[in-house]
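In response to reviewer comment 3 from the previous cycle, which asked for concrete evidence that the modeling workflow produces usable outputs, we include below a single protein chain processed end to end. The sequence was submitted unchanged, and the resulting structure tokens are shown without manual editing.
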Amino acid sequence: MNYNNYDRTVLSEKISRGVIMLINFKVKNFLSIKDLQTLSMVSGATKRKSERIVQKTNFGLLKFSAIFGANASGKSNIIKAFQRMKTIVLKGTPKYIVDEYFKFDSNTIKDNTYFEVELAINDKFYAYGFQINFLNNAIVDEWLIELKNNKEYPIFERNVLTSSIDRKDFSKEISKKLDVYIDDVKSDKNILFLTYLNQNKAGFYKTNETQIFRDIYLWFENQLNIANPETIITSGRYYIIKEHLKQLAKFLSCFDTGITDIRIEKSSNDELRLIPSKLIDNIKNDLLNDHDRLKGFLIRILDDFLILKLDKENSLSIEKVCFYHTENNKTPLTLKEESDGTKRLLDLAEIILTDDNNKTYIVDELDRCLHPQVTYKFVELFLSKAANDNFNNQLIVTTHESRLLNFEILRRDEVWFTQKTEGATSLYSLEEFNERFDKKIDKAYLDGRYGGVPIFETIFPISCIDEDQTTR
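The workflow returned the following structure tokens.
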């Protein structure tokens, strides 16, 4: 049973101070990724469409990247690497052994897996990363480094094997607290120091001196949104708040879904039987302790959206999100009656509609269930927003939609490819090929010019079929 609940806390999401953008993501020895691979959001030499580049001191940052490649070339493993890093930051090492190292080389089984992000936080730059050994399910080392003037200035460096954490100098009060925290966690192989510093330590962040630890953690928690083909990105506030429903309806109408309106309608309390009684009790208790009951709880269950609220008698009432397809049609449809393509658009709508300016969205198989023209339009809408100077969100997608391989819509540095050789994934940018801007790159890609396309072998060669027919 699948449900998502959104309470008052989620609707007033805590975000870090200032704008955080991804510069680079690095991963090594993870699934099909053997050697160190880097996905870079640093802009290349091309000057085209420079209006959607965020200019830093001596480089620019992209707001969009698309990864192309054949099936099983490792595109999804890049996304899974982002997700695994995020999960370890938020929850520590897995509670079970995960054999996610590269398996096609006996020498890599005992090797560590490497994760690192480089982030721009306002006008400062940081590298945060760690290594984990999946054979032992243990963190090996961890680091947070400020990058300035082509030099590295460590904020902390941790070596779990020697139970040591070296740190930079802080004020006397902060140093005293940090030394206590270091002593608590230095030999713990199951939790990152960054994670530990963000567990029930509100008093530690009363000074700007320590804010960097909070900013990076909150980027992973609230601002890095990763979606596999079954994940919902669009948050519950778009269904609970009626003004946002109008936005959703307008968004869907742009994609020729036939939807003209989305409304919240009263529903029969008989549907409470579909919800586990323990969950109902938890929701009611939360609502009783919540002084802002207008938002309620949104639950997605059995492919429907249900909104649970308390009435004046403190009894649970149920509303349902309904979809209307003509101006005069009085018969609403529920989510389960909509097409898979419409559901997919609803799941991803927040990427286009959000007023937030501090998000990194990563979507695996953007084009799943979507018509090619819908995929193209979706990217086009995002890129039109990206041309705004005040828009700093980033979107990274994997896709097979070759229509996007067009210099009329994408920059050369926004295009990436994956290719697998002897089981190992390589990730590389179209920027490396330095193609002319009049090049038909979609045809060149499908012809194998850049790799990353399937190579077929004939199971039954034509000659064998012909020979078989001539003997009959």
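Residues 99 and 468 are 46 Å apart (CA to CA). We consider this sufficient to address the reviewer's concern, and the full set will be provided in the supplementary archive.
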